Each structure stands twice: as structure tokens, then as C-alpha cells.
Amino acid sequence: MPELFRSSRIKEMVLPNRFVRSATWEGMATEKGEVTEQLNGLMQRLARGGVGLIISGHAYVLPTGKAGPWQLGVDSDGLVSGLSDMAGAVHEAGGRVILQLAHAGCQAPAKLTGQDAAGPSALDKEQDGVACREMSGVEIAEVREAFAAAALRAKKAGFDGVQIHAAHGYLLSQFLSPYFNRRTDEYGGSLENRAGLLVEVVQAVRQRVGPEYPILAKINAQDFLRPGLTADEMVQVCLLLERAGLDCVELSGGTPLSGDYVPVRKAKVRSKEESVFYLQEAREYKKRVSLPLILVGGIRSLSTARDLIDRGIADYVALARPLIREPELIRRWKQGDESPSACTSDNLCFRPASSGEGVYCLTAVREKKKEEG
Fold first, then answer.
1. Is 60 annotated as catalytic?
2. Average pLDDT for the chain
């Protein structure tokens, strides 16, 4: 167990252990994307629960990039004060927190943004599963600048770093994927071209926040689409990002169109090997990329987390739904209760978030009510 609870450093950020709270849409911001006391309370509870690093739920960098209701925003200077309160709440509880920066691209609902969704290429709902128009060169430049400006706001607000969301079929993930990206200009075609916007975003963020501020990225292990980003292409993209100035990669996978391989799978935990969603891709990554790796997906037990770290498959292990079920899970494990997470991966936790209550484990609440009679 010592490796799991040994401190480490990502640039200027010192972490007390190898556990990461992976970004989870909390549904606890205001309709204007502002931080609330409810959200601050959750962040403090996670920090006190022992997780080494908290990654916030995705914060939109442009109003046209909203993914859902009650989503956190970082698109204007007016939000910095509230974000500062959020970072301060985590620090007061002894934790570390980074802000995830995102743009939904083709997944941005017009009913929220007031505009038709835009992505790398024009897509048809009936044929492609999602509808959007093609972004212009001017819009691409605006996206790049928006990520850089958002990162600087996060730094000013006191966050310990930022994570660029380039997974799960959001905009930067869409540019990487030949399923979504059918452009014929400098941002389409070859993998290097498809990775161009993401590389430019990392470079722009680095220029804005300085050399020592931690910049992370979340990327798909693969898209599970045809055609889509493959595992080998993922490794090549990460090598490009390493040269661009990135500090750490979180490996996830899938898109809303990926069938049984969507990012938030409803999967029963079986053996350790079967429970880790992106195990083989992580092994390939570690063979060729030197950046620290955060691995998320299917990790539900301390023994699985320990194996991943001890065997050098990952440098950090990330959990999302288990920490919705039990925000104090890491503290419990450290104190000696090594029983696995009670999370059943039923995804019921997102129902209250979708109705404006904020994310919580609905199954746990139902079980408690049943016990109480």
C-alpha cells in the first residue's frame, strides 16, 4: 500500500497520494455557470475524504460550448470570484483541485446555447447520430483563445492546475476523431492535422499560465467508433502533447455514440483484469510516453488500484462514480477498511443532477430508506 499513499509532484503541485477524483458533472452550478455553496460543500467533502487530487466537473470555456444544465462556467472574468471560493474551500480542507476546461462542440444543445451546435465538420443526425455545422477558421481561433483565457482565470482563482478535456466526444475529441472530423484543411486528414487544434490549445494555455503551472489533458484511449481514434493514434497524440508542453495525461474512452463502450458504462465488476476499462491501452501508453498517467474506468477496489500502481501500469488511479457513492472512500481505505466501493455503476446518480438537485447516489439513498423501514 505505501506507493498508493506516497506523495508525488506534477510541476509545482504536490499531491499526498495517488488517488484522483475524475471530473464528474455535478449539476450544482447556477444557470449562469456560477459556483454555489452546494458545489463548494461537495468539493470540501471530497478533500476531507482523502482523495489526493480533485478534478472539477467540466467548465465551459464559451457559452456556445455548454454541454448541460447547471454546468460550471469559466468563460468570463465575472466568474473568477466564485471559482476562487471553490478553490479556497478545497484548500481549507487540505486538498488540491484543478479545473477541467471543456467545449461540447457537436454535443452542445441548442436549447441551452441558443445556437446550432458546431464541430469540426457538418454532421447529420439521421446518418451520423449527431447534428452540427462545420466550424469556420475564425471560430477555431476563438476556441483556442477561449481555452487559454479560461486557464488564466483558473490560475487567478487559485486552482492548482487545469485539465483540458479532449475525450468523450467533446469538441477537442471530435477534432481528433475521423468519425467527427472530415475536414480537408489544415485541421483534417492526417492524425497530426487532426491533433492540430489540441496541440495549439496546449501551447496557448502554456504561454498564458507560465512554465511551472500544471497542465493536464483528458484523452480517449480509443473512441470505439468506426472510423475513430485508435489506441495507437492515442499514443501518437500524447507524444505530440508531450512536446507541446503538457504535464500529465488522464486516459478515458468512448463517446455517446460508442454503444456499450460509452464513457460512463453500466458494467458489473468481475475480475481485476476485466474491471479496468483501458488496461491494455494504458500498457501501450507506458511503453512509449513518459508523461505521468492517470487511469480511470472500472476501478472499484483498493487491491485493483494497488496493482495498477505497483505494476507501473499507471501513476495515478482515478475514480468518479465510487466517490459519488462514498466521498470518504479513500480515507476509509487508508484507515484499514479495504472493502470495495459499494458503487454498482447503475448511473442513477445522474438523475438528480439532470433535475437540478445535483449529483448524488440515488441507490444509497434508497437503500438507507429501505433499512429505516
1. no
2. 95
